[in-house]
Amino acid sequence: MKMFYILMFVSLWLLGGFFLFNRKKVANIWITLTILLGSSASYAFAMHLSIMPVWSEEPWLPQIVSRLLYLSTVVAMHIYFYTLPFVFCMGGLWLGGDMALRTKRGLSILLALGVFALLADHLMNEPWNSFDLDRFRWWDGIYIVLGCVFYYLAYVRERDPAVRSGRRRALLIPVVLLWAYTSDYLGFDALKMGWWSFDLKSNGMWQANFVVILGAVVMILFYTARYGFLGIKLKIERERLDHSLRTLTMGVSILNHSIKNEIQKIDYLAEKCSSLLRAGQNGKAAQTIEQVHGLTHHLLHMVNRIKEKAEDVELDESEQDVHDLVDSILDSARTLVENKPVVLSASHETDGLLLCDPVHVREMLSNMIRNALDALPNRGGAIALRTSSTRREFRIEVKDNGAGIPQEHLTKIFEPFFTTKKNAQNYGLGLSYCTSVMNKHGGSLTVVSEPGKGTVLVLHFPRYRFKARNRTQEKMARERHGVDHLNLS
């Protein structure tokens, strides 16, 4: 049993350190600190019950080192009882994106004052190495309850399916903290930390902590490896995909994939133009030819920009009006759905300029729309594009109500040459190309899908690439674009 105490704090330290090392990808640094600080009690118990009873009398251990280690265990228990509930509460508070930044900062300062008050009360009224739980357990309970409420609100109020899925997995943290509060904060009556000894009065529930803690560690590792936890899988996935793209000489195949999509549009427009000319509608035929020119212009750009390898995709960046960019892609896609029961629409929750490579972004979205069309049943369906922004990123979402993607394929669809389509002309390169381009932009591509209900693909651009218009500029832009597109949630 004593070895489990060591295993608990070591596993939590390693896990928290791993997330902290990858903090640029972690959605919430407070959650990482919750994992790290949650190991403080395990550390103190392991030192007092497992390690120091063996080491304390060893001649090779200096007395000063032993005293410092004892001091560290007392500090660890102070952290566990007074700081951990606050840090957990901050994790839930800052996880949500719908609260104003000023409000979050104000609440953070107010709640931090409570921590200092509890610490001051302890130092003034109790021995520094003794803890009377009746003095603070209910105050800590307020932090725990508030943290659970914040976590839950961050989950239920999130509209983006990919982010919402990640926050559902993050609800594991409140579950573990509720157990810890029940077993330790409510289960303990008093604790006195002697010289490498414990005088603990409790109901004994804490002895089952190792089952909950190690089980939570296993689940977090599972989530990280398979689905992603706090954004970490994304980094691993990128490195694996980048390696695959560097080792495969598939530039020609990607180019063929792009040409195939555009030629289908050109072929349709050529037939349409021929029909219009036979009907004597020369004006409409000329307009159709202009659409062909736009497609060939796009293809020439792709030929010039894709080199021998996929890793040689280079960005030619410029600021693009988001409305114009999305509308031009929809106009091109409508050539594929004329006379078909398919509804194409777009909604813009924000307006502004996006710093990107317009050629590659158009090609990415064209691929995503093509995939959505292939997933729709013969009776038709709907494909909706939506733009939005948060404090951290700008998003372009492509949503369909088609067949969806089987769960066993979700982890493979971004791999080069993987495809579920039976057509020999489909090379399975569209989404791997999109992933490579988004990596070049410093962003990412995520997918949420449910068989029979549809798929949502989301391009995530870093926030610094998006320059939002102020309200006056946005109003002028909307007047320029006319009536807003249908907002399809």
TrEMBL record:
Family matches, as InterPro entries: HATPase_C_sf, HATPase_dom, His_kinase_dom, Sensor_HK_Regulatory, Sig_transdc_His_kin-like_C
KW Nucleotide-binding (keyword) present: yes
Catalyzed reactions per annotation: ATP + protein L-histidine = ADP + protein N-phospho-L-histidine
Full protein name: histidine kinase
Sequence ranges assigned to domain Histidine kinase in this UniProt record: 254-465
Keywords assigned by UniProt, alphabetized: ATP-binding, Kinase, Membrane, Nucleotide-binding, Transferase, Transmembrane, Transmembrane helix, Two-component regulatory system
Pfam (any one): HATPase_c
EC primary class: transferase
EC number: 2.7.13.3
PROSITE patterns per UniProt: HIS_KIN
GO MF entries: kinase activity
Transmembrane portions of the chain: 6-22, 29-49, 69-95, 107-124, 136-156, 168-188, 208-230
